[in-house]
Structure formats: structure tokens, C-alpha cells
Design brief:
By secondary structure, the protein is α+β, with helices and mostly antiparallel strands. It has a domain at about 35-155: Ubiquitin-like (UB roll) (Roll), CATH 3.10.20. The protein contains five helices and ten strands; from the N terminus they run ααββββαββαββββα. The protein has helices at about 1-10, 15-30, 70-80, 105-110, 155-160, and strands at about 35, 40-45, 50-60, 65-70, 80-85, 85-95, 120-125, 130, 135, 145-150. The strands form three sheets. Strands 2, 3, 5, 6, 7 and 10 form a six-stranded mixed sheet that branches. A hairpin with a 5-residue loop joins β2 (about 40-45) and β3 (about 50-60). The longest helix is centred in the N-terminal third of the chain and has 13 residues, at about 15-30. The relative contact order is 0.19.
């Protein structure tokens, strides 16, 4: 039996370095890029006098990681375009996505962020369409958000839309004049 114990002792591998590596790696896990599974939406409601009425915040779980589909976005807009019996229209959609690489974090922190054009995290979404998101460092996941600015819709907007139809009246100038033709021989 003593031979078996000696053999087991020799076969017992030194796993201390693996445990050490995992403990060091746990310290850096927050610096690895990950898919964005949920994102915060901020809704800013602006009245006709250009004053902010209300700001709402909501966390949305994405169906597809790193991607907000057109259907999801339209559903969110329809759910939030009305506030206390006042209708609002979308003025702007802003995407704030921190997609800096882990190797660039130290350089970005040391450099002047205002002069660094390579890292423009805030982008305006031009069309109501799907919004792709880039992978983000897990430590910065909470900073990623979509801001939707709603502007108060005036009551006259719906009524005035019908008045934009230009009516064309056709007047016949020669309707009552008749031309007489002479017989030529």
C-alpha cells in the first residue's frame, strides 16, 4: 500500500498555479468585453416652451444581444409617446455606447478625452430603424444607454395636415366662345 501512496503523491499535480491564475484573472474580469444583453433607455419630454417636463428611465432586456430591432424600437416609442394625456413626437434618438477596447482604457484615461476623436461614444440615430450596439467592457455596461427626446405635439398639428393639400382649379377660357368656319369654295 505504501507503493500506491507514493505513486499517488507523484501523480498529484501541482495545481497551485492554476488557482493563482484564476484568482488574478477574477480581478480583471470586469475589463473583458461582453455582449450587451440589456440597456437603459432614458426618455426626455420637452414641452412647447423648450422646458424639460419629465425624464423617465427604463431598463430593456434585448431579444438579441448587441441589437435593438426595429420592432422593439417602434414598440418602445409607441409605449412612451404619451405622458399625462399629452402626445409627444420623437425629436431625437441618441445612442451612447462605450465600445473602447480593454487595451485602450489606460491610454484613453491618460489622454484628453475632448481631443480624442477616435472615441466618439455618443451618436445620433438618424432613422427609426434597427440600432446595432458594439460589445462593451463589463465595467462600463451600466453607462451604455439610448436617450429618446420627445417634443410636445401641438393640438393644431393634426388639423393642419389636411390643409396642406393644394387644390387646383381648372378654368376653361374658351368654353363659351365658338369659332365659326367659313366655307371656302
Amino acid at each position: 500500500m505504501s507503493l500506491d501512496a507514493e505513486i499517488l503523491d507523484k501523480m498529484d499535480l501541482d495545481t497551485n498555479w492554476i488557482e493563482e491564475f484564476e484568482s488574478v484573472d477574477n480581478n480583471y474580469k470586469k475589463f473583458y468585453t461582453e455582449d450587451i444583453a440589456h440597456i437603459k433607455f432614458h426618455y426626455v419630454y420637452v414641452n412647447k416652451e423648450n422646458n424639460i417636463n419629465k425624464v423617465k428611465e427604463e431598463t430593456v432586456l434585448l431579444r438579441t444581444p448587441n441589437y435593438i430591432s426595429r420592432e422593439e424600437l417602434i414598440g418602445i416609442l409607441k409605449r412612451n409617446n404619451k405622458l399625462s394625456d399629452t402626445n409627444y413626437t420623437v425629436l431625437s434618438i441618441l445612442k451612447y455606447n462605450i465600445d473602447i477596447e480593454p487595451t485602450d482604457v489606460v491610454h484613453y484615461v491618460k489622454s484628453n478625452a475632448e481631443q480624442d476623436d477616435a472615441h466618439d461614444f455618443l451618436k445620433s440615430v438618424k432613422n427609426i430603424d434597427a440600432i446595432p450596439l458594439n460589445r462593451s467592457i463589463s465595467m462600463f455596461q451600466d453607462l451604455n444607454n439610448i436617450t429618446i427626446i420627445f417634443y410636445e405635439k401641438s393640438i393644431n398639428d393634426d388639423r393642419c395636415l389636411n390643409n396642406y393639400t393644394k387644390r387646383i382649379y381648372i378654368k376653361t377660357i374658351r368654353a363659351n366662345k365658338r369659332r365659326t368656319y367659313r366655307k371656302t369654295a
